[in-house]
Design brief:
The chain is about 5% helix and about 35% strand. It has a four-stranded antiparallel sheet with strand order 1-2-3-4, with no helix packed on it. A four-stranded antiparallel sheet has the order 5-6-7-8, with no helix packed on it. Strands 9-10-11-12 form a four-stranded antiparallel sheet, with no helix packed on it. It is built from one helix and 26 strands. The two termini are about 55 Å apart. It has three domains: about 35 residues, no CATH class; about 100 residues, Neuraminidase, CATH 2.120.10.30; about 150 residues, YVTN repeat-like/Quinoprotein amine dehydrogenase (Methylamine Dehydrogenase, Chain H, 7 Propeller), CATH 2.130.10. The chain is mainly beta.
Length: about 375
């Protein structure tokens, strides 16, 4: 009923033997035995406190709002690194704990990350200088956490957990609420939650029963969740346009042969994606209206001569350029995302100028601009 006895020996009136990884001592006269406590003190340099160069272990980088510093995770510590001037700062200095997934707050004053310093992972919010005590927030159902992201107004932090649940935490109260989930566990985590510019919506991806991905949106104010894409294509990597008018995403129409990820028949097939966006408000028109260069005739020369006209025109152009520069430097008007779900799937537009390929990691930039990564060519059918 127990492990086998190994390496039996005798001496000095007792019997010693190994069982289950322990050395036992048995007194034949009394029939009693006990585990022998063995302590070995070795000169192991790698077990002693020492300096470690962690520059080769940097992961999970996030840029500050002004771009002057970056926060990174390296060997379980959180560092901020200057873009040009200043020192690298170790914000945590906790070699006995694992800190991970740091993100800057929108105002640049705070950094949030996960830490297991208490024995279970918690969310930590601290000042970006590391001068004041951090705030530890216990999370429901402690586990391993991913993808923390501040809402643009700084009032919420979204994150996912190892069980593919999506959470939204109220920064003021420290209360977290589960707002979505992915019912299918696959090797790659693809929920990728992102906040809308007005902090009212979270877009994320979840598997359908067909194992195709679909894009969903959750409203923080109403608690309502709606499906955006129809599930006939594999839709991933949502990104809100800075204008609040469009929701970008990548979608594949040749995913079927790869949907059974554990089946070896899917290994030889490459999934290609196209670039799409949904027009959220039915009152907005598509920005991709057809354009045509049509001949309208040469404009008439001004009566006072071409040279003066051109100079005047140049002057006006300069003024317009100045107005444009002043407008770009002016504070942005508040964005309000309005989604008309009636007919939304009929307002999904493909971007024909972007040919299908192996795209990933779609990110929003300025209004009307997105960035993505294209993988290199691969073999397979």
């Amino acid at each position: 009923s127990d492990f086998d006895v190994k390496t039996l020996d005798t001496g000095d009136g007792v019997v010693v033997f190994e069982q289950a990884g322990y050395v036992h001592e048995l007194d034949p006269k009394t029939g009693k035995q006990h585990i022998v406590d063995i302590t070995a003190t070795g000169n192991f340099p790698w077990m002693m406190p020492h300096w470690v160069d962690v520059s080769g272990r940097v992961v999970n980088m996030a840029i500050s709002p002004t771009g002057k510093r970056a926060v990174v995770q390296a060997r379980g510590e959180i560092f901020t690194i200057p873009a040009e001037y200043g020192d690298v700062r170790d914000l945590t200095n906790t070699s006995g704990a694992a800190e991970q997934n740091p993100v800057w707050s929108p105002d640049g004053k705070s950094i949030a990350y996960f830490s297991d310093q208490s024995g279970e992972f918690q969310l930590v919010i601290r000042d970006q200088e590391g001068l004041r005590p951090p705030r530890f927030i216990s999370l429901p159902h402690p586990t391993y956490y991913f993808t923390p992201q501040w809402s643009p107004d700084g009032k919420y932090i979204s994150y996912t957990d190892t069980n593919l649940h999506l959470w939204v935490l109220d920064v003021a109260t420290g209360q977290a609420k589960e707002v979505g989930n992915d019912p299918w566990m696959v090797p790659t985590r693809t929920m990728n939650p992102v906040w809308s510019p007005d902090s009212k919506w979270v877009a994320y991806v979840a598997h359908l029963n067909s194992l195709f991905h679909a894009v969903f949106v959750y409203n923080v104010e109403t608690g309502q969740t709606r499906q955006v894409t129809d599930g006939l294509a594999d839709a991933v990597s949502p990104a809100w346009d800075a204008s609040g008018k469009y929701l970008w995403f990548l979608a594949s129409t040749d995913y079927g042969l790869k949907s059974e990820w554990l089946d070896m028949s899917s290994y030889d097939h490459t999934e290609n994606f196209g670039l799409y966006f949904a027009i959220l408000n039915k009152k907005d028109a598509t920005p991709l209206t057809p354009r045509s260069d049509d001949e309208t005739g040469r404009p008439a020369e001004p009566e006072n001569g071409g040279r003066a006209g051109r100079m005047g025109g140049a002057g006006r152009a300069g003024e317009m350029g100045g107005d444009a520069e002043r407008a770009s430097a002016a504070p942005r008007a508040p964005v309000s995302v309005q989604i008309d779900f009636d007919g939304l799937q009929e307002r999904i537009v493909s971007v024909p100028e972007v040919p299908v390929a192996q795209y990933s990691d779609l990110k929003a930039g300025a209004q009307g601009t997105v960035y993505y990564i294209r993988a290199g060519a691969a073999g397979g059918g």
